[in-house]
Amino acid sequence: MDSVTENIRQQMRKGVLEYCILSILDRKEAYASTIIEELKMANMAVVEGTLYPLLIREKNQGLLAYRWEESPQGPPRKFYTLTDKGRATLMDMDIVWREINDTINTLKK
Prior knowledge:
Elements: H1 3-27, E1 30-31, H2 32-41, H3 48-60, E2 64-69, E3 77-82, H4 84-108
Antiparallel strand pairs: 1-3, 2-3
């Protein structure tokens, strides 16, 4: 894969990463390592340095809440959950995603 294609892939992934995070947290609460693992399993590679600023921004926007839980190994873990505002935002993102997908499919015909 050439560098142009890789750059396109990275930019498109960045554009949907927040949507992916909210989608994961809609199913269950999770801590950062779990979110990263789920993203990797879905072929959406992301590192902690990318994830944490997004989690902070989403929390500051009122989309996420968190709670601390003691860990049997190491420091306490911060578990993230969606707020009501986060669920409403995810529903809006679902609509926009379908609209974009429909537009692209129409244009490719």
